[in-house]
Specification:
6% strand; Four Helix Bundle (Hemerythrin (Met), subunit A); 160 residues
Amino acid sequence: MSLLSDVRERHLQMMAKTCAVLQNVVLNLEPGRATTLRDGPQGWNTVEILCHLRDFDTIFRERAALMLQQDNPALRAYDHEVLVIEHAYAKQNLHTVLAELVASRQKSLEFFEALTEAQWNRPGLHAERGPITLNDIVVQFGMHDLDHIEQITRILSQAA
């Protein structure tokens, strides 16, 4: 196994671990607190953050699939705030959203685990980040997850 393969495997393990961490963080969280405690006056609540993670899990996987299907495709950016409103994040159920994230993450893991060595280097052109590969998307999963896990734990710790 090459060093790069080992790094990829660790990122995939981290992607799987994210859902376990989130399940533990919200295990005893009352639904009311999940929707009322916010990251600042205009910030998101825990349910909205989990909706965002669920939706971007799918978006990241769809971008990756497009990179396999097309040569260097243009990957569009998404307005995070518009998705909150369009998908009515604030009205969704905490445990349903978490279950949907877990199911989506399983699909993402299966997608990435099936890639060949050559496929990992398939490029795309992200509207905001510029050139990326499937390797970059796996790293992005982990960084994105970590940013929002920190956000959720900060929201909940400030209210404790």
